[in-house]
Specification:
The complex is a heterodimer of chains A (102) and B (94). Chain A is an all-alpha fold and 102 residues long. Chain A has a domain of 71 residues: Cyclin A, domain 1. Chain A contains 6 helices and no strands. Chain B is built from 2 helices and 5 strands, in the order ββαβαββ. Chain B has a 5-stranded antiparallel sheet with strand order 4-3-2-1-5. The radius of gyration of chain B is 14 Å and the shape is globular. Classes of the chains: A mainly alpha (102), B mainly beta (94). Chains A and B meet through helix 3 of A and loops of B.
Chain lengths: 102, 94
């Protein structure tokens, strides 16, 4: 694939930029954070507060620099936060207050 | 479009909605405009392009479509194939 196409930055398959980098195939240990985010996304889907498609849209909307900097589950968390704010499930003030308690 | 039969020659639409605003697209960029062959119909599923924005979503036919890998990525041996799930509106007769 060497066409110069207007692909979205998350649409990485066959992108020349990544073809020369070896793929990291080592198993990754999940952190407690990773497991909590995974559980949270499951609860939100079961309660019909967020579809998997909405979560993917939110991940794809992360600006390119942040997208490549963030870990897999940090991308999920960023999208979950975006979706819950967007739908009014949580407010900016509640989010800020919760972060101050951490 | 009528249901596509296994073996039907198709082309993936050479369309780039990502240049026109926020979208969620399940058709990878490297297949746009490529010719492939329908392998099987997988069923009908609510359109993820609408579900992603919490819009009412019509059910669309989803197909397994095979592509010759060397033509897509300019690597691989003749006979190497990619098998990709593609929603019907992205396919046109080839």
């Amino acid at each position: 694939m060497d066409k110069d196409v207007p692909r979205a930055h998350h649409d990485l398959g066959g992108a020349p930029k990544f073809m020369c980098e070896p793929v990291d195939v080592e198993p990754h240990a999940l952190t407690d954070f990773d497991k909590e985010v995974d559980g949270l996304s499951g609860v939100l889907r079961m309660k019909r507060l967020m579809t998997v498609d909405e979560m993917r849209r939110g991940i794809e909307a992360i600006p390119e620099d942040d997208y490549h900097r963030l870990s897999y589950y940090r991308r999920w968390m960023r999208s979950i936060t975006d979706n819950l704010l967007r739908k009014g499930v949580i407010t900016e003030a509640e989010l800020r207050a919760a972060l101050e308690r951490v | 479009m009528a249901a596509l039969a296994p073996g039907a020659a198709v082309r993936v639409r050479d369309d780039w909605p990502e240049t026109r605003g926020p979208v969620h697209i399940r058709t990878p960029h490297y297949l746009r405009g490529m010719r492939g062959t329908v392998v099987r119909r997988l069923g009908a599923f609510a359109n993820p392009e609408d579900l992603a924005f919490a819009r009412p979503a019509a059910e669309l036919a989803l197909y397994h479509v095979a592509f010759e890998q060397p033509a897509v990525w300019r690597e691989g041996r003749p006979g190497d194939e990619l098998l990709v799930e593609i929603y019907e509106p992205w396919l046109e007769p080839a």
